[in-house]
Amino acid sequence: MKFSIKKRSRLSAFFSIGFMLYLCMMLPFSVHGATLAEYKVKAAFILKFAAFVEWPADVLNPGTSPFKICVVGDDPFGDLLPQEIPADGPDGISFKVARASIHDEDFSKVHIMFISNSDPDAVSSIVRSIKEKPVLTIGEGEDFLKQGGIIAFTIENQRVRFMVSLKGAVKAHLKISSQLLSLASFVLR
Q: Is pTM, for the whole model, over 0.85?
């Protein structure tokens, strides 16, 4: 049996997807450099992705352990991803956000990992080292999927979009909701 963060009703899922579409379409940013708006959208996506991915049952302990997110390398989020994010409902789960150097060796007990592009060689090494562990790896650019990552943020028409690698998710023992896949700009099978 697998565990997903929340059991969602269709109406709840509809509103979550609507919120994600709003973020995709309504928050433009400067093409010449990443802005606060771009990383607000990416931070919101990272938190929402958790509700649309199933981890193996032995990975999460609902109600007892916080859901762990790790930002590896240069941190573009700052306060947009605070260290602790409380549960948003009675059946929700709290988030704990950590920062790590791109050269750290131990990424155990992490559920979602955002890997910055600060050192492209290290990105590939990190993804290879955890590719069969139940960690949702998120990065930026098409190359991230080629390196074995699961979700890659891209910029299309000055909007934040994302691509998904189902192959990477299967290797990590994760199941990505069809609702999330329908929002992806590209799905690598």
A: no
Domains of the chain: total: 1
| Predicted pLDDT of residue 29 | 43
Residue 144 burial (C-beta neighbours within 10 Å; 0-12, 13-18, 19+): buried
- Residue 16 is part of which domain span? 2-188
Strands (E) in the chain, as ranges, are 2-4, 53-56, 67-72, 84-85, 95-100, 112-115, 136-140, 151-156, 159-165, 175-176, 186-188
What is the Cα–Cα distance from 8 to 57, expressed in whole angstroms?
A: 17
Q: Provide the angle, in degrees to the nearest 10, between the axes of the packed helices 36-49 and 10-26.
A: 160
Residue 130: φ, ψ to 5°: -120, 10
